[in-house]
């Protein structure tokens, strides 16, 4: 039989109210009591009845993940992290795909909030920096956590030093002897687009390599734009010997563009991306990329959001670390054939 809150309380020797306070991470519970209750919860495999809990508290215990992002691999990692946090804190998750930039965009968001009784939102780029959306949420008094926002002051969520990460990646390509390095940016509405482009330029400047705008093309953070923009770079009279793509999906598209032209990676072209999604190790050759811990970012942003739901003054903007993942798609410079 499924364990009840009464069973947990009896086994732990506390009241049902104390069990509830422990499950909700409320303050003013002695650590020894909190630990004892948590041990019983695990031993009995207790899971709260969220519907009954919601009715009793007149709350929904629902958070929403809002997104309009072309990178399915990135979004899946974020979603898993958000779900991990919701499960740990006994919240429900609803997904909020939107059509950012359209006339009905704000209506989609506010409609979801009302219909699902959402207590808070996790925002992904480019929603993180939409001024009208943020003002609407502030006006409604709905807390939100942002993943990789351009403006971080006064907000909660999680971010990463994408400028430094991009600069380190391009510096690595330079250390392999590459001097003609192409860059495919992401959509300009994303903070990551500007940060990664700035890191690319900084690495070139530090190495004394002149910036060539011909080698920089705007992409969309997706596979299709990688095929298209990668092809444009590879069709230049003097093509690049290395390309830094703004994310892994774009890099996978460049790999396809190179194959269509009879070029091999890394023999004829060194290639690197950004994110370290599972796909980066599933393509051939495995992709050199920047590890952005997207799953952890989703989890941490959600935990900060739930803190803010429980206490309006709670929640912080956290920064996570990145790491280069050096794989077979990048190799020392060889003169073009």
Automatic annotation (TrEMBL):
SUPFAM superfamilies: lambda repressor-like DNA-binding domains, Periplasmic binding protein-like I. InterPro entries: HTH_LacI, LacI/GalR-like_sensor, Lambda_DNA-bd_dom_sf, Peripla_BP_I. Coiled coil: none annotated. Keywords: DNA-binding, Transcription, Transcription regulation. Gene3D superfamilies: 3.40.50.2300, lambda repressor-like DNA-binding domains. GO terms for molecular function: DNA-binding transcription factor activity; transcription cis-regulatory region binding. It comes from the Bacteria. Residues 3-57 form the HTH lacI-type domain. The keyword Transcription regulation applies. The keyword Transcription applies. This is LacI family DNA-binding transcriptional regulator. It comes from Coralloluteibacterium stylophorae.
């Amino acid at each position: 039989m499924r364990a009840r809150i009464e069973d947990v309380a009896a086994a732990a020797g506390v009241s049902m109210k104390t069990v509830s306070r422990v499950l909700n991470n409320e303050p003013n519970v002695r650590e020894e009591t909190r630990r004892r209750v948590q041990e019983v919860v695990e031993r009995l495999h207790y899971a709260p009845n969220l519907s009954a809990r919601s009715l009793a508290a007149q709350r929904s215990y629902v958070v929403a993940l809002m997104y309009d992002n072309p990178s399915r691999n990135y979004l899946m990692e974020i979603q898993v992290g958000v779900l991990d946090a919701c499960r740990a804190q006994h919240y429900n998750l609803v997904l909020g795909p939107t059509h950012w930039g359209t006339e009905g965009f704000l209506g989609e968001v506010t409609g979801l909030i009302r219909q699902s009784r959402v207590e808070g939102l996790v925002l992904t780029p480019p929603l993180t920096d939409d001024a009208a959306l943020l003002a609407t949420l502030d006006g409604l008094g709905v807390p939100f956590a942002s993943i990789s926002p351009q403006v971080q002051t006064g907000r909660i969520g999680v971010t990463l030093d994408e400028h430094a990460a991009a600069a380190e990646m391009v510096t690595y390509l330079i250390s392999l002897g590459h001097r003609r390095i192409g860059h495919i940016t992401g959509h300009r509405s994303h903070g990551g687009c500007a940060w990664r482009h700035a890191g690319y330029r900084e690495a070139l400047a530090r190495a004394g390599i002149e910036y060539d705008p011909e080698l920089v093309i705007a992409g969309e953070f997706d596979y299709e734009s990688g095929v298209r923009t990668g092809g444009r770079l590879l069709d230049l009279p003097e093509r690049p010997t290395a390309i830094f793509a703004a994310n892994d999906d774009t890099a996978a598209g460049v790999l396809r563009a190179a194959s269509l032209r009879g070029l091999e990676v890394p023999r004829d072209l060194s290639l690197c991306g950004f994110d370290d999604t599972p796909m980066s190790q599933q393509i051939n050759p495995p992709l050199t990329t920047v590890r952005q811990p997207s799953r952890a970012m989703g989890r941490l942003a959600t935990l900060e959001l739930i803190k803010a739901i429980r206490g309006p003054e709670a929640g912080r903007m956290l920064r996570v670390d990145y790491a280069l993942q050096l794989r077979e798609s990048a190799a020392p410079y060889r003169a073009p054939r």
